[in-house]
Amino acid sequence: MRASFFFCVCVAFVCASCATMTASTMPMTEEPPEAAMTNDVHSYALPDVARVTHVSLDLRLDFAARVVAGTAALTIERAAGATDVVLDDRGLVIEGVTDDDGHDLAFVVGPVSAVRGSSLTIALPASPLSKVTIRYRTRPDAEALQWLPRELTASKQQPFFFTQGQAILTRTWIPLQDSPGIRLTYDARIRVPQGITAVMSAERVDEGTAGDDVVFAFDMPQAIPGYLIALAAGDLKFTAISARTGVWADATVVDAAASEFADTEKMVAAAEELYGPYRWGRFDILVLPPSFPFGGMENPRLTFASSTVLAGDRSLVSLIAHELAHSWSGNLVTNATWADIWLNEGTTVYFEDRIVERLYGTDVAEMLRTLAWQDLLRSLAEKDGPDPRLWRALAAEEDPDEALSDVAYIKGAAFLRHLDGVVGRDRFDAFLSGWFNDNAFSSRTTAVFLERVRTQLAKNDDERARMHIDDWAYAPSTPPTTQPTSKLLAQLDSDVVKLQNGAAPSSVDTQSFHAMQWVHLLQQLPRTQTAAQMKALDDAWGLNADHSKTSNNEVRFEWLRLVIANHDERSLPVLENYLVTIGRRKLVLPLYEQLATTSWGREFAGRAFERARPGYHPLTIAGVEQTLAEALSEKPTSP
Ligand code: BES
Ligand code: ZN
Q1: Nearest Cα to Cα of residue 431 among 593, 275, 545
Q2: Percent of the chain scoring above 90 in pLDDT
């Protein structure tokens, strides 16, 4: 089993035979009422009454106290008669709120919900006012923030700080209306100690000093949802890739990163050819330490990417294609609520695949598509697998990450591929360009997208019927569709059989393997191996070795699954080191879960987690704690 993208634990109706179900046996499903689809249950904001249109931040990073402190001045557009503005807040310490003239405004922090945090309601004076200024600071354990001490950075020169807002965590460091349906522009002044460089998802417009500190000023004049406001600070260096692309990273990795991501300009050009101009000016990449809880995050103008993708052979750069594609699907046209996340992620995976195909050819694109499809089938077949519907109502007390699964990503992309199969690529590409263009800088629901498919993409009833639109979106099963296949993976079939029949690993010609072929080969090996067989695999393929072809983090992940399955003592130090140095959820949570099914594994996991915890992000800590707690409440499957 390979991990699902975000490894959510969902209570879902699981249909293991989904892939084989025919259209006539599928439950007919229709679109839910509009009100159920436009309402963002995860935000307290009442934007029709009073809406934040701009935020001006003036913040200081206190690395010693792990606190962000300062002011957020919000520009508000209010309906006639509006008496207050409602914001989202999660754990902020609000010190005071003032109007344009510096007079205090009354405010109330509402009751705390574990998922949404609290409302922050500010009384608006009767006189027309343009701004309310909130003086506040964050808690040291704010979920959007990670503060890494300098010892845990690559060059160990300066501490490192970064934010991760998606889905609903921006409210843990900025008081605002934290809904993907509410867009705002922003500017910021960020004060940091000398020697530290701050970067944001915005244009840097100035740099100066204030006392002993350095101040960086930023401007984002394009309206974005709050989850895309991002800030990082540390010992950062910049290397240009092209006139409009480049890499920010720790000095010790910046050159390696620039070379790994050398194709970035080509990716932007390919994306523009496919779906229209790149509208954000620069496309830079910030390399985050391995504790970054995700592989990548599409912060506008400055994609955040985990250093775990720096494989040395550019084999994991489809992640950059993915985050770049979000510049259209996600950042330009945004999912209206988190129940619509497949619109962001599914469309992006489809778009990513098209970029990969242009740059690296059909064989590579097919291989990635096929591996992803296999992941989807595996996760749907799991006992606690994801809800198979692209859209379903989310409850207010349900974490929006519950809607994040292989379904949103892989089934979402497969739906668009299905549509392109029905109408042909030319028509589909024109349709998608039109969607991005007509809805630029707006947030849209699933219903609006599907209506456009129904009325503008489909030419006639026959096409509409073959699209199975409502079934793809709302039925708890996947309509019949062409399953992806891969020449590069099929090439491994005979090797797989040979190995399954006991051939020596060294007899396989792995010279020209792509990292993803390694992933596939390791996935196909029998789960039970003797200690001698594990040693033979490692000896032949360098699976535990540093700087080998198989030290690629995705390949090593597959190897470590086999190590855990066989309690391979001699590889446990490598496993422990992986868990302690990497904090990317997708790469570590499945290993903890697997470890937690045995008693030796639980003990091992507990020890590794204790060592790893100081370097983990709050989201990863929460994920591991949940995984281990759930495992303890279930019966172990073996000693
Ligand atoms: N936007 C997502 C990351 C995300 C989604 C963070 C929802 C928080 C909530 C990003 O674009 C993404 O999908 N990242 C993937 C990599 C990608 C290649 C599939 C990841 O981090 O694994
Ligand atoms: Zn994404």
Answers
A1: 275
A2: 89
Distance, first Cα to last Cα, the chain: 20
Measured in whole angstroms, the distance separating CA 140 from the mean position of its chain's CA atoms is 23
Q: Please, which residues have CB within 8 angstroms of residue 151's CB and are 6 or more apart in sequence?
A: none
Indicate if 323 belongs to the active site.
Answer: yes
Contact 454, 391 (CB under 8 A): no
**Which residue's alpha carbon is nearest to atom 17 within ligand 1?**
319
pLDDT computed for residue 402 by the predictor:
76
User: How far does the centroid of ligand 2 lie from the alpha carbon of residue 323, in Å?
Assistant: 6
Query: 143, 260, 298, 323: which one is catalytic?
Result: 323
Asked if residue 323 has its Cβ within 6 Å of ligand 1, the reply is yes
Distance CA 237, CA 239 (A): 7
Region 226-253 average pLDDT: 98
| Predicted local distance difference test score (pLDDT) of residue 36 | 73
* pLDDT attached to residue 633: 84
d(CA 550, CA 613) in angstroms, rounded, equals: 26
Determine the length of the chain: 639
Report pLDDT for 489: 98
Q: How far is the C-alpha of 573 from the C-alpha of 406, rounded, in Å?
A: 31
Kindly compute the dihedral angle of the four CA atoms of residues 620, 622, 624, 629, in this order, to the nearest 10 degrees.
-170
Q: Please, which pLDDT band fits residue 607 given cuts at 50, 70 and 90?
A: very high
Among all chains, which residue has been given the structure tokens 């300066």? 158
Whether the pLDDT of residue 26 is over 60: the answer is: no
| 584 band by pLDDT with thresholds 50, 70 and 90 | very high
Inter-residue contact 26 to 481 (CB < 8 Å) = no
Report the distance separating Cα 555 and Cα 553, nearest Å: 5
Binned at pLDDT 50, 70 and 90, residue 638 comes out as: low
pLDDT at 398: 96
- The secondary element (H helix, E strand) that includes residue 585 is helix 585-595
Distance 349 CA to ligand 2 centre (A): 7
Instruction: For 481-498, give the DSSP string.
Output: -PPP--HHHHTTHHHHHH
Are the C-beta atoms of residues 334 and 442 closer than 8 Å to each other?
Answer: yes
d(CA 443, CA 224): 9
- % of the chain surpassing 70 pLDDT: 95
DSSP secondary structure letter of residue 399: -
Residue 408 beta carbon below 6 angstroms from any ligand 1 atom: no
CB contact set of 398 (below 8 Å; sequence gap of 6+):
115
| Type of residue numbered 443 | S
Could you give the CA distance from residue 50 to residue 463 in angstroms, rounded to a whole number? 43
Tokens of 211: 């006392």
Instruction: Say whether 409 is catalytic.
Output: yes
CA atoms of 324 and 354, how far apart (whole Å): 12
Secondary structure (H, E, C), 84-117: EEEEEECCCEEEEEECCCCCECCEEECCCECCCE
Q: Which tokens in the block code for residue 284?
A: 């830079």
- Using CA atoms, how far apart are residues 308 and 236, in angstroms rounded to an integer? 17
Max CA separation in the chain (angstroms): 82
If pLDDT is split at 50, 70 and 90, which confidence band does 289 have?
Answer: very high
